[in-house]
Specification:
The complex is a heterodimer of chains A (114) and B (109). Chain A contains no helices and 11 strands. Chain A has 114 residues and is mainly beta. Classes of the chains: A mainly beta (114), B mainly beta (109).
């Protein structure tokens, strides 16, 4: 059973703080993704990674960075949190071995920036 | 124009109703069409996927793709309160998926 876990379900931070969101998958998937989900805007891709130490920008990378030092772990970093980064953050993983590229999602981290 | 458009709802139906959820898309290169279900405070989970045009049935759920119209649908027969969730369509030109904004469905007893 594929499992994607995220370090926190709920997080409250102050403006200007550096924030780390961690994601771990246990299925040896090559691909990992970070999304944010906002009402009316759906899922928006922040960053993704095809392999260890590789990263590519998604649609809204500004204000974020990522790190992938190990295959199973993908971290999202908010360098200096701002109130407009209050959102639900979802991590996902997939393998290119499946034609339809099914993504498996974690439970999400609801981040509030005050 | 967005690549994938989905009516956000919310859609509220009585138990037992037939539900129709829809998405339109603009890129004719899309080959795989997926429906994800997301319960409140959870991550999305794949419900079904279809390759190219045609229908696919899984229990009470039927996914339909019309590539000529660039239109996909998910039908839920005999809807149950446990079907209350947000349904997201998704399509994949590459390893990345492009998601619709999701339709919130509420099935009341």
């Amino acid at each position: 059973d594929v499992k994607v876990t995220q370090s926190s379900r709920y997080l409250v931070k102050r403006t200007g703080e550096k924030v780390f969101l961690e994601c771990v998958q246990d299925m040896d998937h090559e691909n990992m993704f970070w999304y944010r989900q906002d009402p009316g805007l759906g899922l928006r891709l922040i960053y993704f990674s095809y392999d260890v130490k590789m990263k590519e920008k998604g649609d809204i990378p500004e204000g974020y960075s990522v790190s992938r030092e190990k295959k199973e772990r993908f971290s999202l970093i908010l360098e200096s949190a701002s109130t407009n980064q209050t959102s639900m953050y979802l991590c996902a993983s997939s393998t290119p071995d499946r034609d339809h590229n099914e993504q498996f999602f974690g439970p999400g981290t609801r981040l509030t920036v005050l | 124009q967005k690549e994938v458009e989905q009516d956000p709802g919310p859609l509220s139906v009585p138990e037992g109703a037939i539900v129709s959820l829809n998405c339109t898309y603009s890129n004719s290169a899309f080959q795989y069409f997926m429906w994800y279900r997301q319960y409140s405070r959870k991550g999305p989970e794949l419900l079904m996927y279809t390759y190219s045009s045609g229908n696919k049935e899984d229990g009470r759920f039927t996914a339909q793709v019309d590539k000529s119209s660039k239109y996909i649908s998910l039908f839920i027969r005999d809807s149950q309160p446990s079907d209350s969730a947000t349904y997201l369509c998704a399509m994949n030109p590459t390893d990345k998926l492009i998601f619709g904004t999701g339709t919130r469905l509420q099935v009341f007893p």
